[in-house]
Amino acid sequence: MKRILNRAYLSAVILTLHVFNVSAKDYNASFFGIEPGGIILNTRAIQFGVDYISENGGGRLVFPAGKYLTGCIHFKSDVTIQLDKDAVLLGSTNPFDYDRQNTPFDHNFQTSLALILGLNQRNIGITGQGEIDGQGKALAAAVGELVKKGLIKDRSVSRPDEDKRPMIINLFGCEQVIVKNITLRNSACWVECYNKCKDVIIDSIKVESRAFWNNDGIDIVDCTNFKVTNSYFNSSDDGICLKSLDANAANQNILIQNNSMTTDASGIKFGTASIGGFKNIRILNNKVFNTNRSAIALEAVDGATIENIEIDGLQGTNIGNAIFLRAGARKGSRKGKVENISIQNVNAEIRTEKNPLKSMPGVVIGGLPDQIITNVKLRNIVIKFSGGADKALAKITIGNLNDIPENPASYPEYDMFGQLPSWGVFIRHAQNVQFEGLSLTATKADFRTAVVLDDVHRSGFKKLTVKEPQPKKKFFTSNSSEIKF
Fold first, then answer.
1. Which fold has domain 22-237?
2. What is d(CA 199, CA 252) in angstroms, rounded to the nearest whole number?
3. Rounded CA gap, 185 and 208, in Å?
4. pLDDT of 11
5. Is the pTM here over 0.90, yes or no?
6. Domain boundaries along the sequence of the chain
7. How many Å apart are CA 316 and CA 286, to the nearest integer?
């Protein structure tokens, strides 16, 4: 496989993702009558300050230590919000204090409410040692009360739809953005969403958001030249989630490096929304722990192409699954494609399930008969698994692989096929999948086979090591050809 990213590309990323100068002049928040205390609503004063700074050469709006209550703020070009240590922007718990961003697309990812909005602005940032607290639990409850009263329409009082609950940050079409060192807490929806943004640096931030459902740590949608580095995500949905909503756009030239995350869903995920594409993306030296689903999930199920992805250095602890690749077709005629993926230096420990049969393999690669996943190279993969599954209770074995559902239109997750007949690696509908250095360990005897391949061709396993209490045949193949062990 050709090297995914060449030196010219790397040089371009370094040049375009420089630290932007957005600090022409500092303005203390008090200069605009912005008051701490967490009681007075400062929305209009903060907005006036942002507008004034933008219109007068740019600079920083500096918040000293204190709590500042506010509703929705609209970013303007050449402005940085600087949150000093112990400075907190508190989001209002009144849903009517939030605006909806008007964008060219009618989709809730673009139009959702947010505490901080930005539309087609340049040279903007949020920096400092302070934090933004969305007060999401109280805010979501207030939205539910409005639904209950019939003041807004929604399907549920207890769990209003995403476009009814404000995010903390939602930027669309913005360029030269830097978010650094701050803490983001308690969003009522996704914590932060960057849509069709360019030249973005997210560095050394901390996300603590389990206030409500759908608290993705960060959503990156059809962006170009985007870096997420040295950050921590604790969220009740996916940690770092890339989406594509425009058939004519893609996430491209993305760097995700030196982050750690714990979530109720997946650590790093491409999809579920996957209409356009994902290409030239590097995921380096990340840690995922105590996560219910996959450490890494690459899912093309709405017509997108996922290509030229490099994953190097991944540590997963107490996770549902290490690596999940999926090509699906939720929209019928639009068929997703996954190809040219490089994954190396992965060390993962799969969590122990009360029912061992619910434990999924550490690596699941699932295409469809007419959507073959191709050109996947995996090197130095180490997976530890508790094992313990009993054949007498199993519905699926290597003798009835045809009973495993294809589920082309289903929501993609690593466990979407139900019970699987392998505990280490399961691959279906794939071609040219090459392992070099694969170590699989089961601590308890498990009737399942370590590696199962179904409709896999021109693939190979070099340096395969399987350790289990009751050694047996390491692999099983069906409807496959040119497989080398």
1. Pectate Lyase C-like (2.160.20)
2. 11
3. 5
4. 43
5. yes
6. 22-237, 244-485
7. 9
